[in-house]
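Suppose a classmate hands you a notebook page containing two proteins, each written out with its sequence and a corresponding row of structure tokens. How would you begin to make sense of it? This section walks through that situation. The first entry is reproduced here exactly as it would appear on such a page.
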Amino acid sequence: MNNNVELEAAVFRRLLAHLDSRKDVQNIDLMNLAGFCRNCLSKWYVAAAAERGETIGYEAARALVYGQPYEEWKQLYQRESSAAQQEKFAAADKAKH
């Protein structure tokens, strides 16, 4: 079992490295295509810690996922989403409810 944890941790680190290398891919694109984004990963990190009796704040988790403070990443890499991206996101969100 310990080996699985090590493998899963390596996969997670690789996913974060991949996302870091693809800063051109916006969170709304990830949400529209895959149903999750970097912020979702941050929330899952917080939840996983809580399930294990540990505490990590959302902003600290975001810094781990983004590789830097979120506000800094946002200022450097986040672009304004297009009307088409927003419409697709809204339609997917509406379909969930």
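The notebook's second entry, a different protein, reads as follows.
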Amino acid sequence: MARILWIVLVVLVILWLIGFLMQIGGNFIHTLLVIAVIILIINLVTGRRGV
């Protein structure tokens, strides 16, 4: 599950950069990026702990 979240995060960052450089997508891409960052933070905080 964590691997999928990382893939989604990378894809959204790439889309955000493309949208930022080409002025495509507007607020939608920025909203997706914020959601991805929130998911990343939750994943890092509640991730697996070492034994």
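A careful reader of the second entry would note: The chain has a mean pLDDT of 74.
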